């Protein structure tokens, strides 16, 4: 297949492309810069000039492809309404040219906030759209199923981790660097799921190959890592104090991340593993963090 990938030069896109190529597929990668185009060419990918704002470039890429993997998203949560509207427009543009073709369209989504306080599964519906949560990636893609698009979703854990990025944990590290303390909320027993980037990339490739209309796949290797354990790994690695913040103190310390950092959002990938034969093999989040700080020469 020729797979059109948005977010091709991003962390998850870069982890997915080698799996697609290794499985014999060709890749058309969206990029908005010559630097990105050069990087894609080195991987054996055909660059497709454009951006998420350039809807015609998205239509053109989707029109050429046998399948679309939409991994691009502007992760600026301070503008969540704006970036969510942009994402809706991009999905509608690409799915519009796929109508009636039966071609796969796989959209990136997340497991966080689907079922706070309990383990969410692939059977859980997408979170309803609201003023506080305006993102509608899954719902927008799914609306094209009756119009002849084989739309599905890969839901990523809050921490898709590697040496360069660690998902939402990257923001915890930034805040720790800025404030001089590594913090969690309350007793820190709330948990976030995690998955290593290469494992997430393999799942994306499988989701494209085995596309099912309405399927939801969970990119989750660790069902839940306690936030206190994460904070301790950051504190240990950076050599800074590890402290607890009350819910009242969270907003001032964590800013927009305060909406997530106190939540317990465990997630299962049991159905994904059984149906797709996906078996995560990467290292765990805490080991990855320890190795990152060790490689950087940071000691307590």
Automatic annotation (TrEMBL):
Organism domain of life: Bacteria
Signal peptide coordinates: none
NAD-dependent epimerase/dehydratase domain residues: 3-214
Protein name: 3-beta hydroxysteroid dehydrogenase
Organismal lineage: Bacteria, Pseudomonadati, Pseudomonadota, Gammaproteobacteria, Lysobacterales
């Amino acid at each position: 297949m020729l797979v059109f990938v948005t977010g091709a030069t991003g962390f998850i896109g870069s982890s997915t492309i080698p799996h697609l190529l290794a499985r014999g597929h060709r890749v058309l990668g969206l990029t908005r810069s010559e630097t990105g185009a050069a990087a894609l060419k080195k991987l054996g990918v055909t660059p497709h000039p454009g951006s998420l704002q350039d809807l015609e470039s998205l239509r053109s890429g989707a029109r050429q492809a046998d399948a679309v993997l939409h991994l691009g998203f502007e992760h600026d949560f301070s503008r969540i309404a704006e970036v969510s509207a942009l994402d809706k427009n991009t999905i509608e543009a690409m799915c519009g040219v796929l109508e009636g073709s039966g071609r796969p369209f796989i959209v990136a989504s997340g497991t966080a906030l689907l079922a706070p306080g309990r383990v969410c599964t692939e059977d859980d519906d997408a979170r309803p759209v609201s003023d506080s949560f305006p993102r509608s990636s899954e719902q927008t893609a799914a609306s094209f199923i009756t119009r002849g698009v084989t739309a599905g979703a890969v839901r990523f854990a809050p921490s898709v981790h590697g040496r360069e990025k660690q998902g939402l944990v990257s923001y915890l590290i930034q805040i720790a660097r800025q404030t001089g303390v590594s913090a969690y909320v309350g007793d820190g027993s709330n948990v976030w799921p995690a998955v290593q980037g290469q494992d997430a990339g393999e799942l994306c490739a499988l989701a494209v190959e085995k596309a099912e209309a309405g399927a939801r796949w969970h990119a989750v290797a660790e069902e839940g890592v306690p936030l206190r354990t994460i904070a301790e790994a950051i504190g240990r690695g950076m050599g800074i104090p590890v402290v607890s913040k009350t819910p009242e103190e969270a907003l001032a310390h964590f800013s927009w991340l305060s909406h997530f950092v106190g939540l317990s959002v465990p997630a299962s990938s049991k159905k994904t593993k059984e149906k797709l034969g996906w078996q995560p093999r990467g290292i765990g989040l805490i080991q990855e963090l320890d190795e990152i700080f060790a490689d950087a020469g940071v000691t307590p």
